[in-house]
Amino acid sequence: MGYKGSIFIxxxxxHMKPVIKRLALFFLSFIVFHACAFNVCAGDSxxxxxxxxxxxxxxxxxxxxxxxxxxxxxxxxxxxxxxxxHIKHFAKKVLKAEKGVAYxxxxxxxxxxxxxxxxxxxxxxxxxxxxxxxxxxxTISDFASYSFFNDYKKKIISFSGIEDDYIIEIxxxxxxxxxxxxxxxxxxxxxxxxxxxxxxxxxxxxKIKISAVRMSSKPDETLSLKNGNNLLVWRRDNIPALKPxxxxxxxxxxxxxxxxxxxxxxxxxxxxxxxxxxxxxGIIEKSMDTSSEEIKNLAxxxxxxxxxxxxxxxxxxxxxxxxxxxxxxxLGDHGIVPHNASLCLKNRYGDCKDKSVLLVSLLRACGxxxxxxxxxxxxxxxxxxxxxxxxxxxxxxVAVFTEGDGDTTFLDPVCSSCPYGVLPEDDQRAHALxxxxxxxxxxxxxxxxxxxxxxxxxxxxxIDSTGNANVDSDISLAGSYCTELTGVYKNRSGxxxxxxxxxxxxxxxxxxxxxxIKIECPDLTREELxxxxxxxxxxxxLDMDKRIVFMDAVPFNISFSLPPGEKRNYPVELGKPHRRIxxxxxxxxxxxxxxxxxxxEVIDGGSFRYSLKFHPAVSYTHLRxxxxxxxxxx
Length: 634
Description:
Layout: E1 4-11, E2 40-42, E3 45-47, H1 51-56, E4 68-80, E5 83-94, E6 103-109, E7 113-123, E8 129-131, E9 137-139, E10 153-160, E11 166-176, E12 185-186, E13 193-202, E14 208-213, E15 221-224, E16 230-239, E17 257-262, H2 273-284, H3 293-303, H4 309-323, E18 325-326, H5 341-347, E19 349-350, H6 352-365, E20 369-376, E21 395-401, E22 408-411, E23 431-434, E24 442-444, E25 454-463, E26 469-478, H7 480-490, H8 497-505, E27 518-520, E28 531-538, E29 542-543, E30 548-549, E31 578-587, E32 601-604, E33 608-617, E34 622-631
Parallel strand pairs: 1-9, 4-13, 18-19, 25-31
Antiparallel strand pairs: 1-10, 2-3, 4-5, 5-11, 6-10, 7-8, 7-11, 12-17, 13-16, 14-17, 15-16, 20-21, 20-23, 21-22, 23-24, 25-26, 26-28, 27-28, 29-30, 31-34, 32-33, 33-34
Helix pairs in contact: 3-6, 4-6, 5-6
């Protein structure tokens, strides 16, 4: 079977959050030479490595247990005033090919991180070379990929017909025009790496700072080049694969990385938090608008009759989160620069930057002190220590400062179902930088109290004399439970509310007739999901011959569990503090009684506590089961 390759240019509908791809990081390299390592460099050209050299590379037994191994990967950064050239060169060897499976590689670009060239080839064990040709590049239209209001593109190289011991080699050359787009160059992957190299070349008069995560920032080699530039080189060999575990924190928190910081933008200082705050304040404040009649009239109308500042803030926050549609907009420089507040108000849509600018403008228009906040959400990993870089952040929210008590309240206008003062889960415990003149540096956003994230489920089961059961469930939600389930119901892709509820809250969704379930649910176009009531019947819940009640028919046990006997290298991540309280009342016909009950279960997991207890009431004809689950802060 022969190799077939193609490159597709896709327009992607990407969020502002530049999430590091977890399943294919491909940021790894080799260590033989000083300046170009495996790359054969002549001027601006980048050449493939000799095929004979690649074929002779042996993989040690310690790295050959999986299906694939990265032979080398190299990042070359050439920093100049106003731009950065970034070359990524890597080769992967497929040890055990999956039949009929294509091997895709995805590279994203934008106007500030432009791909200038991409070359790819496949080498068979016999030495046959097939290179992807430019004519194989296909462009898919905007509407075909559902992309609006952004200029991001994805270049996808898909290799099919790959067999055992084939080698895939790729070279990508980029031009970076913003410090927000500087790469975090990692030294581990979910696949083993034979060799890894990073080199950074920069002029002596350019200010640069190197930060590192889980490794030393000190380079293995520092050279002075003939052109007067400096060259820093980091090398690593025989890097084992990172093996993800169940319920672990984001893998980004455990992967070693080098993070260069330099000021591509003229006059900016990105080597300190105060410098980053000052630079972004100069950008975002230009989008604020407190003088327009539309902004002032709306603000005054919203606070009319409000009793105090807190009530005013609540009204404005509720209006923005409910009436301005979240839409990613990254055309031109708007991946970084927000649109004007008046334009966001007129259009009634915007991304996190736009909605935050509108919220701050409305608050300031009625005399309330507020500022935008840069955030690194916890779903992409919180670094310890954090990396001083504008590229560290991926989100924008709002900080409100109230007089008298001196408190700061954080609001995320993107979260349409978050009540006042409650942040969505990915914002809690996140690193943040308040953008104002007297910025105090990096802070950690607060964590909600346990009772703010609570699910209470009360289930009543009445079994008749034939063994059939009628079930009534009353489900109350708060905090992240409310947020997550509201999102599930609103984005149900054509399914009915009944279908979603059946899947979520009944154990056998296909065994219950559609007309046998009754649901009370709010109008989700107007309000968030806080309470659901449902009723349904379960035939044969009581086995009349064996006299056994099948409690599994009702999914009241919603607890977290780890795989039995799992040996862990990483901590358990249970999210933010939660509380789940479930009460099940099981009532059997008169004349029946419970003679044998399940054993109580109590688990103290360190980061969580769980208990399940059964106790009879009313002469053993009424069984009550209580399940409680407290997820603590890790």
